[in-house]
Amino acid sequence: MELGTHPTFRDSADGTVLTSARAGDPIDRATDAARRVVDALLRTDRTNANLERVTEELDGIAEHLEEHAPAVAERLIDMWSGEGVTRHDPVTGPENAIAPPLVLEGRGDGTVCGTVTLTMAYQGPPGHVHGGVSALLLDHVLGVANAWYGRSGMTAQLSTRYHRPTPLFEPLTISGRVASVDGRKIHAEGDIRTADGQVCVSVEGLFIDKTVPRPR
Amino acid sequence: MELGTHPTFRDSADGTVLTSARAGDPIDRATDAARRVVDALLRTDRTNANLERVTEELDGIAEHLEEHAPAVAERLIDMWSGEGVTRHDPVTGPENAIAPPLVLEGRGDGTVCGTVTLTMAYQGPPGHVHGGVSALLLDHVLGVANAWYGRSGMTAQLSTRYHRPTPLFEPLTISGRVASVDGRKIHAEGDIRTADGQVCVSVEGLFIDKTVPRPR
């Protein structure tokens, strides 16, 4: 993310949405529909759904989309141009069907947070969120918290603690904040809680202020 | 995973595949096609690809699959019955379009490893793997390494270190092993390397031998 153009808690209102809104654009609606297919494939009956026909139809759609896809190198340039917030990341990206997607708001106290209900595709232990998915979400939230604080860094170290199993199918609150800054080292922390405030997973992250250049 | 039924490095051959093979079943083929759609949606041209029609078709497929889906509670019982290795997790599950999917083999020395090439959907920094995705993959690999060692535990703590950006579109080798066991505490470690052996991400995990009951 480019500094200077990105909102921070010092210059922006409490409640500023820091992730790309699902805009109702055709690509966002198509991605929502793809998310629905991913979930339904995990839930559907293995013998009574016509999976041969589904395969054919999905392959047909993919072929159509691929026919209209530019070369990957060209697409990479395009997807990193424009707005400071990405639309394609695997946590908050409205254009990425892997993303739940998580919507994050910045708070006046420097915290960022969002609420998300995770479903079948994110399952680890029976009925619960995969521990690695919790780490994925928290890493991303800490990155957004850095930007809201006015810094930007690459993850150097991420320490995740699991306090209790994190439930699927229930609203979870995910939050993060910068705890301290020491030169180029940014220390951030965050957690995932159930609706009644129980901490399921907590995280501490060390980020180094070092930007990976955008493709061009 | 149920102990006793799961292969370990003491009783099974070097090279034993520890993840569910893509069986060519209709559900696996349909999920492969869904993966292709997820990727193509990220790559396709935003203006020329007739995304309205794509949305309609994807929604139609989802509707068909949902019509044949049992209640979630019932499906949860079903998906956890049978074989000891899950087919639906977000890292190795052939039935989960979010999973790359990673295929893991057990080695005679107790290590588990696999090779995977990650694409657009797993992007964090431009052209590189999202740090949280690396944590997700490594958490899962350590879980499989525990089972190959003959133990099974819930993640208690996961410490991930990022040594250099992890490239997309290149084969990555992911491996894990149990480092030591102290009563119910299982210490495991692993890493992600490029084809020429450079370590991009390393991980240490503490797992506690505590099984979450399967739904029934």
TrEMBL record, chains A, B:
Keyword Lipid metabolism: yes
Record-linked InterPro entries: HotDog_dom_sf, RHA1_ro05818_N, THEM4/THEM5_acyl-CoA_thioest, Thioestr_dom
Compartment(s) of residence: Cell projection, Ruffle membrane; Cytoplasm; Membrane
UniProt-listed Pfam families: 4HBT, RHA1_ro05818_N
EC number: 3.1.2.2
Keywords recorded for this protein, A-Z: Apoptosis, Cell membrane, Cell projection, Cytoplasm, Fatty acid metabolism, Hydrolase, Lipid metabolism, Membrane, Transit peptide
GO MF annotation, one: hydrolase activity
GO biological process: fatty acid metabolic process
Domain of life according to the entry: Bacteria
Enzyme's top EC category: hydrolase
Chief location bin: membrane
Thioesterase domain ranges (all copies): 127-200
Topology class, membrane: Peripheral membrane protein
Catalytic activity entry: octanoyl-CoA + H2O = octanoate + CoA + H(+); (9Z)-octadecenoyl-CoA + H2O = (9Z)-octadecenoate + CoA + H(+); tetradecanoyl-CoA + H2O = tetradecanoate + CoA + H(+); decanoyl-CoA + H2O = decanoate + CoA + H(+)
Residue intervals of the RHA1-ro05818 N-terminal helical domain: 18-74
GO cellular component terms listed in the entry, alphabetical order: cytoplasm; membrane
Family, as annotated: Belongs to the THEM4/THEM5 thioesterase family.
PANTHER family: ACYL-COENZYME A THIOESTERASE THEM4
Name of the protein in its database record: Acyl-coenzyme A thioesterase THEM4
Organism: Rhodococcus triatomae
